[in-house]
Design brief:
31% of the residues lie in helices and 28% in strands. It is of the alpha+beta class. It comes from Imbroritus primus.
């Protein structure tokens, strides 16, 4: 039996636990002889792939917006710059007390040439999304903005600025959600965006099969009803 030994075990342990989004080369041995070098990625880097991680306790809205801009529309603006620019057009004291609002996001997005629109929708609308949207969740009294990528078969795929990519059961999501979504509109959303991809190829295959069988595709823009609340 061959024994595979990771020479950089302490380094590997650091990678698995660290919040540093990094990839490094780890040399491996087979029967005590140098063999190959394997590139490994930390669990934290995998969890926050295509997610802007929030740096401050009140900046989840800025980070969620930054996630959409960077990984959706290719507009790469650092979170600190987004915070700084949003504070210029917001009530700074209110932001420090409660965080940014969807209205703050809309006003900021307009300065970049986009249009921000809010919708009140039912949970079923999230299963028809054609673009990612920002939603506000109430998690045990803590108001927190996340990006919803899609929903299917009882699960909601979320890019969370605080926790990274995760999947929430629909019932758990519904309990925390206020039925409002915020969509950033202004140019065609690239269908190749990583934000449109979820680790559920079977779900996508089933959807495609249903469309080929004659199921009617959603007719509303972006899969959302036209019910602006601002």
């Amino acid at each position: 039996m061959r024994l595979y030994t990771i020479l950089a075990a302490p380094l590997t342990g650091w990678l698995l636990c660290s919040g540093v989004a990094a990839q490094t080369a780890v040399p491996l041995q087979i029967d005590g002889q140098p063999a190959i070098t394997k590139r490994v990625t930390s669990l934290a880097a995998m969890r926050y792939r295509n997610v802007m991680r929030q740096e401050l306790d009140f900046s989840c809205g800025a980070a969620a917006l930054g996630t959409l801009l960077r990984y959706g529309y290719g507009v790469d603006i650092e979170e600190r710059r987004i915070i700084s620019d949003m504070l210029k057009i917001s009530d700074a004291e209110e932001v420090m007390r409660r965080g940014f609002s969807m209205l703050d996001m809309r006003n900021y997005i307009e300065t970049l040439g986009f249009r921000g629109t809010g919708f009140r929708v039912e949970l079923s609308a999230l299963r028809q999304l054609k673009i990612p949207v920002i939603v506000l969740l109430d998690i045990k009294g803590y108001q927190h903005f996340v990006v919803v990528r899609q929903a299917a078969e009882g699960r909601v795929f979320v890019s969370d600025p605080a926790l990274g990519n995760r999947i929430m059961p629909e019932h758990e999501f519904a309990e925390a959600w206020n039925n409002l979504v915020f969509a950033v509109i202004g140019q065609p959303f690239p269908q190749t965006s990583e934000l449109l991809k979820a680790d559920a190829p079977v779900l996508r295959q089933r959807t495609d099969a249903a469309m080929r069988a004659g199921a009617r595709a959603p007719s509303v823009d972006f899969g959302l009803a036209h019910m602006d609340f601002f």
